[in-house]
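User: Let's play a game. I give you a shape written as tokens, and you guess the letters that built it. Ready? Here's round one.
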């Protein structure tokens, strides 16, 4: 039973502490849109997305008005397009343009799924899709792309890692007149989840229903405020406060997801209870860590504080929903988090510390801007390091790096909006070229043998 105190508390969270539903994402299977004729396949894709998602944005807006809860993004995720490219062949960028047309008609913020899953090797359509990613992202506005290069079960496909380093650089080069936005719409994964509602990594997995609604909640500001009110309590009490707060945040996501599912007559999938920050003041994961007692995010103790936060968020959120999924935990995207931006700008936060933090957070090296002259093999090696963390620890890790073409360490790249701004961070220039050039596959770890 919701009482007046609960209602007033929720209103305060929304008005003063940046609580919101970050996204309602409709997952749509495109497997029945495969066709040997790529043009027919593209028409089937457009028709199905528009038919399924024509009411997604209006329903999201109605829920905002009825419940008084901000819903920041309405998005779509689709079956990895490499599956369709395997059936049709041809110019794969046509698929990106069909998705872009569907995004325009439905009015969604993004469509994710211009993707390939190559963690164990390349199947038909995979190489063509990967090769086309830079052009597809340069020629569209609302399309997001991802490649899964490794998993705990399969190891790491180092041939794919090598190719993805080139893709990231090329995507940045083709959009250098737009702040290298192409690279910001691409992410490389290890252990990619099939039900993730967050971009750029959302795609509709083959184990998912034909159509489903997934919800991503947010609320770093709410968690920070709750810790601030607690005063000088011990660290065990901090964990309890985070759990209780995550429960309240996730309960709101469950409500929105259930109502969206009913209104759209589509099954409700999962709530991703991740703390997704924004550049807005008071909406920062870094500021939560600092509220725990760090002078600055990046100081000694940062990884321990983040581990506590991530675990407590999951424990609290899982009690509020029967269907928790996606990534779920704390995101640490540098350009999208005001506290991370400050910490990186003053030198407290380095890319090596961020890599350590990814061992205990929900994602990985996210929205990190690096010098524009960073070699492809260095980009690939950073990805390999991050994939190794995910593979060994049986968790999702990801890399979203943006080479700032024409800029160097100390400069700033401005995206605006939710993508924010980021100082350009230095990376090691010692060459991993021979390692990356070997190719092959890093074998799966011994812990993969759990059958």
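Assistant: Ready! My guess for every position:
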């Amino acid at each position: 039973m919701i009482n007046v105190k609960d209602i007033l508390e929720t209103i305060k969270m929304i008005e003063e502490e940046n609580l919101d539903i970050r996204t309602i994402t409709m997952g749509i299977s495109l497997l029945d849109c495969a066709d040997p004729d790529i043009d027919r396949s593209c028409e089937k894709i457009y028709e199905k997305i528009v038919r399924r998602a024509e009411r997604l944005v209006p329903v999201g807006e109605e829920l905002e008005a009825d419940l008084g809860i901000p819903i920041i993004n309405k998005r779509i995720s689709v079956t990895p397009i490499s599956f369709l490219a395997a059936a049709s062949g041809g110019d794969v960028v046509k698929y990106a343009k069909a998705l872009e047309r569907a995004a325009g008609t439905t009015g969604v913020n993004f469509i994710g799924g211009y993707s390939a899953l190559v963690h164990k090797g390349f199947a038909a359509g995979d190489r063509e899709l990967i090769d086309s990613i830079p052009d597809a992202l340069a020629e569209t506005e609302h399309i997001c792309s991802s490649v899964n290069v490794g998993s705990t079960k399969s190891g790491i496909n180092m041939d794919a890692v090598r190719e993805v380093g080139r893709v990231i650089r090329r995507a940045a080069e083709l959009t250098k007149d737009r702040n290298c936005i192409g690279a910001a719409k691409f992410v490389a994964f290890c252990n990619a989840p099939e039900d993730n509602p967050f971009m750029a990594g959302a795609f509709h997995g083959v184990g998912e229903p034909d159509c489903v609604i997934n919800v991503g909640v947010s609320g770093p500001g709410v968690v920070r405020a709750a810790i601030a009110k607690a005063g000088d309590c011990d660290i065990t009490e901090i964990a309890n406060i985070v759990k209780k707060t995550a429960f309240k945040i996730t309960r709101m996501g469950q409500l929105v997801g259930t109502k969206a599912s009913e209104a759209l007559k589509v099954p409700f999938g999962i709530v991703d209870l991740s703390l997704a920050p924004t550049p807005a003041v008071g909406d920062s994961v870094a500021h939560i860590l600092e509220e725990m007692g760090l002078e600055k995010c990046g100081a000694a103790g940062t990884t321990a504080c983040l581990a506590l936060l991530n675990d407590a968020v999951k424990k609290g959120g899982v009690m509020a929903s029967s269907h928790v999924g996606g990534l779920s935990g704390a995101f640490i995207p540098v350009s999208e988090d005001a506290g991370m931006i400050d910490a990186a700008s003053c030198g407290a936060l380095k890319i090596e510390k961020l890599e350590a933090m990814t061992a205990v957070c929900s994602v990985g090296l996210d929205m990190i801007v690096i010098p524009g002259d960073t070699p492809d093999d260095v980009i690939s090696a950073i990805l390999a390091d991050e994939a190794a963390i995910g593979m060994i620890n049986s968790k999702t890790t990801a890399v979203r790096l943006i080479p700032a073409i024409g800029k160097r360490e100390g400069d700033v790249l401005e995206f605006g909006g939710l993508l924010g701004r980021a100082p350009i961070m230095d990376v090691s220039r010692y060459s991993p070229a021979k390692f990356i050039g070997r190719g092959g596959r890093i074998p799966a770890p011994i812990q993969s043998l759990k059958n």
